[in-house]
Structures are given as C-alpha cells and as structure tokens.
C-alpha cells in the first residue's frame, strides 16, 4: 500500500485548529462557569484544582527543554518557565494564580497545601508531565497547542466574571489578562515547530492524536471537578468510616 500524501501545511494547521470543538470551553463545568451558574465553592474548587496544573506547567516545560538539543529552541522555550515561575521583577503566573486564589477566598496557605486537589485532577496533570518526559521534544511542543484555544477562554472570563461573580475581587483576574498575549506568543512558536517537524501523513496524524490526548487531560480534569463539586460525589463520598 502506498503512503498517503501528507496534508499541505495549511490543511494540517486547519485540522489542528479544528480540534477546538473538543476544547474544555465546551465542558459543562466551563459552560456553567461562563453563564454565572457556579456558586462560591464551585469556583473555589476549580481555582484550587487548576492550581495543580499551573504549578506543573513549568515542570512540563523543563522536561521538554531537557530533551531538546537545539539551542535556538531552548532560548525561546525558556520564556514559558519564566512566565510561570517569574523572572526578575515579574512575580510570574503561579504567583498571579495565588492572587486569584485569594480573590476567590482561598488563603495562600490552603492553596499551596494542595489539600483540595482531587485524585482525578492529579492523575490527569501528572499524565501531561509524564508525556513531556517520555515523548520527543517535538511531541512535547505539539502537546502545548491547546493554547491555540486558550485566549478565547481567558477573554471570556475577563469580560464575564466582573458582572457574573461580583464577589470575586477584580485584581484576581490579572492572571487571565496576562495569558492572552503569552498564549498567542507560545502558539506561534509551538505551531512553527509542529508544522516543521510533523511532515509525513503518519506524523501529522500522530500530532492530531497528541493534541487530542492533551484535550482529554483538560476535559478529564473538569469531569473530576464536576463529580466532586456539582454532583457532590468526591472520592469515597459513600464510605462511612
Ligand atoms: O485557563 C485555561 O483554560 C488554560 C488552558 C490551557 C491549555 O489550553 O492548555 C493553558 C492555560 N490556561 C494556561 O494558563 C497556561 O499557562 C497554559 C500552558 C499550557 C501548556 O500546555 O503549556 N496550557 C495552558
């Protein structure tokens, strides 16, 4: 059987972008959040659980860099670690997320203790870090491409939350404001690497699978939160000690 013809660069990019249909913006938890239907505990649960994702992103990026022999790529990729961990005067995204935590009524100590992180969220996020550790660096780069769809969700929160959730201190939203431009810059690089590296049809199909795997991670995190904070069935809810 002859090899299938590769998609053109434009067709490949369009197929990657079409994965937006599976983005977590369409998860019922996010839909409820965007419609102002979540209560305080449900917002707090989301912020506390997403914190685990935030702290693992720079670890994931350090794994990608550790596998990358190309200096030019490392010089650009390292920016992602600075964005989250902070650099010089900039306290960074993890600190900004901590302020978001405070704005929704979670103390710094409680957030950092990770005591609210659900096992399902932990497993999903850890799968992302492990993927970056075990895959090639180009596959790791490709897995970050859900960021193509992130500016829309950040902007949705920035425009919606002040009216929908007036009890959240507005300074807490600074994280989302900053991510819009950072995500666009990350995507430019991630997409460039992906379109350059995944060139055969089999590789292009592999890239779509990787992107789907990452979408699965984001969706699964929200499934775990739905069960715990909407259905009130956190792990072991039915066990009477
Ligand atoms: O709030 C969101 O919905 C959302 C989604 C994603 C994403 O799509 O992976 C990221 C972020 N936020 C984000 O803030 C962030 O820093 C980030 C880094 C990455 C990544 O895969 O390297 N994704 C995301």
TrEMBL record:
Residues 16-223 form the Thiaminase-2/PQQC domain. Its EC number is 1.3.3.11. One of its GO terms (molecular function) is pyrroloquinoline-quinone synthase activity. One of its GO terms (biological process) is pyrroloquinoline quinone biosynthetic process. Transmembrane segments: none annotated. Gene3D superfamilies: Heme oxygenase-like. It comes from the Bacteria. It catalyses: 6-(2-amino-2-carboxyethyl)-7,8-dioxo-1,2,3,4,7,8-hexahydroquinoline-2,4-dicarboxylate + 3 O2 = pyrroloquinoline quinone + 2 H2O2 + 2 H2O + H(+). Signal peptide: none annotated. Keywords: Oxidoreductase, PQQ biosynthesis. Pathway: Cofactor biosynthesis; pyrroloquinoline quinone biosynthesis. Belongs to the PqqC family. Ring cyclization and eight-electron oxidation of 3a-(2-amino-2-carboxyethyl)-4,5-dioxo-4,5,6,7,8,9-hexahydroquinoline-7,9-dicarboxylic-acid to PQQ. This is Pyrroloquinoline-quinone synthase. It comes from Methylomagnum ishizawai. The lineage of its organism: Bacteria, Pseudomonadati, Pseudomonadota, Gammaproteobacteria, Methylococcales.
